[in-house]
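Lab manual, section 2.4: Encoding a predicted structure.

Procedure: take the sequence of the chain (307 residues), apply the prediction step described in section 2.3, and record the output as C-alpha cells. A sample record is shown.
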Amino acid sequence: MNGKDVLNKFGFDIKEEPVSIYPYSPVYRVKHEERDVIVKRTQEHAERLMEYTSMLKRNVVKVVTPVKLDEENPQRIGEYNFVVYPFIEGTTYTGSDREIFEAGQLLGKIHSLSPDSNTYGLPEYDVYDFNQDEVEESMAAITKHIREAQLTFDLESLRDVLQEAVIVQGELQQTDLPHIATTYDYKANNLIMTPEPYLIDPDNATWAPRIFDLALALLLFHNEHHDAPDRVFTTQEWKTFLSGYQTYVELTEAEKRHWERAKRHIFLDEVIWLMAEYPEDWQNPAQQKLFLSLNQMILPNADYRLE
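Recorded output:
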C-alpha cells in the first residue's frame, strides 16, 4: 500500500503520493488541524505498545502517544500497523554534557518504571542463535567496504571479539539478568531536547535484559544523527550518561559482571549488520569515523564500564 492510501485511511485528504522523511521506512509529516503530525509504521501488536507508552506518559515521561482522530489510531493498513503521533517541535541533540546527562536520566526513568514481568506483552528479546559462518560473511563484506574506502581498520581484533561473542551467547542467555520493558532504540535521533529530552520514537519497545538496552545506547546513541558527534561517547561522556541513568536505576552485581559479554553480544546483533549491509555508509566520512570509534570501543582494553 502506498503512502497516499495510508494517509487517506487516517482521514487526511492527500492527493499526491507523499515523500517519506526517513529513508529506511515510511514516515510522513502532514498537517492535522493547526499542527503537524507524524504518520509511521509501528509494531504488530500496536495496542500493547500504546498501553505501555501511555503508562510512561502517566508517569511524567515525555514520550509521544497517539493523536486523537476521528479515525481509529493506530490501525491496521494492508500488511502493517500504522500510528499517528504529534510532531514535537524543539532543538535537536548536539552532544553537550547537559544533554548527555539528561538523556541518561530519561533512559533510567524509563527503565525504573518497568513492571516486574512482561505485563504489556511486548516482543521478547530472543536473539541468541548467531553462528560463525554469519560472522565470516559479515567480516568479508566489511573487509570489502574498508578496502574500497581505503581505510585502516583492525579487522582481526574485531573478528576475535565477534567469534568469542558467538561462543558465549548460550551462557549469556542462561544468565539470570534483570529484564525490563523498554523502548529498545534509545538514541539521539529519537530524542528532541525541548529543553528536556522528549522521546519521539518508542515503536521498537521490547521486553529485554536491562543491560542489553544500556549497551545499545552506548553503541549507537550517535548513529544517524547529523548534529551529534561522529563517534561513540568518549569514556568521560559515558560516565556522564551513566551518572544521569543511575539517578533512577541501581544496577545489580550480575549486570556489572556480565556487562562486557552483553556489550559484545549487542554489537554482534545490532552493529555488525550496519557495517556489513550498507556500503554507502563507508563512503560517508562521518559514518566512517563512527564505525572506527565503534571498533575501538569494543576491544578488550576499552574503558566503558558500569562503575
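Check your result against the sample. The CA atoms of residues 39 and 169 lie 37 Å apart.
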